[in-house]
Structures are given as C-alpha cells and as structure tokens.
Amino acid sequence: MLPVAGLGKRLLPLTATTPKNLIPVNGKPILEYVLEEAVESKIKKVVLIVNPKNLADFKVYLAKNKKRFPSLTFHLRIQQTPGGNGHAIAQAYDIVKGESFAVRFCDDVLSGEPAALPALLEIYKKYQASVVLLEAVPRRDVSRFGVVGFEKGKAATTSFAGGKIHKINKIIEKPKIKDAPSNLIIVGGYVLTPDILRNLKMVADTLPVVADDALPLAVALQIELIVKGKIYGWEFPGKRLDCGTLEKLQQTEEYLKTHK
C-alpha cells in the first residue's frame, strides 16, 4: 500500500505541475524506487492512495508504465480530504481487509542492502506481529517524528541483516525532546496485521468531520500495543535519503549518482 496523496507543498514549484511522488530523481520517479522494493518482496497487489487533484496524473503514469512491472496489479483509491496517513490507509480497506499488508511512504528513498520491504516481510513472518522501519537520529531531531520506546535486554533485542530488531513498548508522535523514549524514529516502512487496518477503518467511519491529520497511523499502532502487547522495529542498516524539500531532493539526486 502506497499512500501518495500528499500535495508536496515544500517541493513547490516542482509540484505545481507534477505530483510529489512522480518527480524524477536520478532518472526515475521517486515512486519507482518503492515499486522496485515491492517487486523484490514478491508483493502482488499495489494500492496507490491519491488525492483528487492528482488522480489523472497517476492514471496517465500507470497507463504508460504498469507493463514495466508485470508482477504487480495496481489499484487506485482516493483520499478526498487530508485526514492523516492512517485515514489514507483506511481508503484501501475494500482491497486489503483480512490480510496482512505492507505500507511504504514514498517521501524517502532507502539505499542499501537488504531492501527495506523484503526485510520487513521476513521479520513479520518470524514474529507474526507488526513491524516498523526504524532509524537512529540525533536526539535534537526527534520532535519531528514518531519515536519508539523499546524493551531492554538480550531477549528483547536481536539482529537481522545488519540491523537490530527491537520489541517496541511505546510509540509517541512528535514528542518534546525531554519526553522522547529513545532516538529511534519510524521512517515510513511497515508490515502490519489485519487488525491495524480494521481499527483504522473503524475509527475513520466514526469521525463526523475529517479534519486535517485527524487520524495518524500511530493511533492504530498504539491500539495494537495495548491489545496485543507486541510490535517490532528494525533499524535500517542502509541510508535513508529524504526527498521532502528541494534541498534534500537535490542531495538525494547527487548521492544516487555516486552510489550504485
């Protein structure tokens, strides 16, 4: 599942004519880096959740390019209002209900081996529990992200493919630095249980008015922690390349040109 409904205001003027996730970086749209992860993961169904303004652009893109990804079946769903990333994911309920599912936000390109989605799927299969992608950042930056706390000790921390796996016991969205339980942030990659989507859909259906960012994915993750008591996080051993601003986009382009 690929929520690509963001308007990309920080990438103006590029996004005045091109949806954020279709902007080319080092010769191909940002979206395609994630589609390549999906192919490597042997994922079959891809749901693109778009905003109404960009629906036509994604239809044109798929008409021209879906044959390049023959193993993938594409579905488009519309997020009518910017109700948060959890609200966006809930729009795919009719396709994904009852199945575990992967989510990748395309704001970042993830460079390195192993690729993020295949690794998360392996960890999900091992633990049969939701898994999120983590990155360690300087503590001064934690208030910009969702931050996790995790259990301590050997039994709670193992390793996989060069990155640590943590058993998470807390998720705080954009905490103050003094309140952050660690410097590990969630960076836009997930493999989630069917309950996560069911809870998002249930909450989304009860909202009388969908305010901006009213339903973040973190809400459903917190419910999962309370009910099941287990979510795992994997520290990505590669490099996260931020594509969220014009400056960062340029830095990503330069990095990819020099790192194959």
Features:
single chain; 260 residues; alpha+beta; Spore Coat Polysaccharide Biosynthesis Protein SpsA, Chain A; seven-stranded mixed beta sheet; three-stranded parallel beta sheet; 8 helices; 14 strands; 32% helix; 27% strand
Nutshell version of this structure?
The protein has 260 residues and is an alpha+beta fold. It is built from 8 helices and 14 strands.
Q: Helix fraction? A: 25-40%
- What is the CA-atom radius of gyration, in angstroms? 18 Å
The named CATH superfamily: Spore Coat Polysaccharide Biosynthesis Protein SpsA, Chain A
Structural class: alpha+beta
Characterize the main sheet. 7 strands, mixed
Q: What is the count of DSSP helices, taking H or I runs of 4+ residues?
A: 8
pLDDT averaged over residues: 89
Helix and strand sequence: EEEHEHEHHEEHEEEEEHHEEH
* Rough outline: globular
Corresponding CATH architecture: Alpha-Beta Complex
- What's the CATH C level? Alpha Beta
At CATH level 3, the topology is: Spore Coat Polysaccharide Biosynthesis Protein SpsA, Chain A
